[in-house]
Amino acid sequence: MNELSLHILDICQNSTKANASLISIIIEESTKKNTFTIDIIDNGDGMDKETLERVTDPFFTTRTTRKVGLGISLFKMAAEQSNGFLTILSEKTKGTSLKCMFELNNIDRAPLGKIEETIAILLLNAEGADIVYKHVVNDLIYIFDSREVKEVLEDVPLTDLNVIVWIKDNIKEGILNIHKEETL
């Protein structure tokens, strides 16, 4: 995967399959620390200790449709190629927390890509799960919370095409604005 947003999509799809009702995606860019960090936290089923120990092995998967599970192992490899790391904490019935850190200015760090598309796909396929997306650039913060949007929309579903277009535009503009403010 040549964009980090595709890794995020893969991990969040795992969260929805694990019955998560809330998925938080936090991206922090720090020029001071030279880090680019992605945290994905869910309140899904979680993993037992044995599964957690094997989850980064590309030849392990809980899926029955294939014999390999490349998603997390590829994400880990992408982080390690840019002087970073991937850690996962999980507890059965309590959810999972994944942290992936990259060196911000490393030439091998993949670009974030179209995170607004990733969030839109998740909302269309999350089977009712709420998504909180927080993007931090040094001290500037942008937050999207599907629960707040649902509250404003009342009876209009998040899957309505006009709502999805607005969400994508809002996320894209929000991230551009915090990057623009950072350079001022």
Written overview of the protein:
This protein has 184 residues and is an alpha+beta fold. The protein has helices at 4-17, 49-54, 70-80, 115-125, 146-153, 161-183; strands at residues 22-30, 35-42, 85-91, 95-103, 130-137, 140-145. A six-stranded mixed beta sheet has the order 3-4-2-1-5-6. Strand 1 (22-30) and strand 2 form a beta hairpin. The two termini are 33 Å apart. Mean pLDDT is 90; it is low at 64-69.
Quick rundown:
It contains six helices and six strands; from the N terminus they run αββααββαββαα. It is α+β, with helices and mostly antiparallel strands and 184 residues long. The protein has one domain: 2-Layer Sandwich (Heat Shock Protein 90).
Keywords:
Heat Shock Protein 90; 184 residues; six-stranded mixed β-sheet; alpha+beta
Q: What order do the helices and strands come in, and which of them pair?
A:
Elements: H1 4-17, E1 22-30, E2 35-42, H2 49-54, H3 70-80, E3 85-91, E4 95-103, H4 115-125, E5 130-137, E6 140-145, H5 146-153, H6 161-183
Parallel strand pairs: 1-5
Antiparallel strand pairs: 1-2, 2-4, 3-4, 5-6
Helix pairs in contact: 1-3, 1-4, 4-6
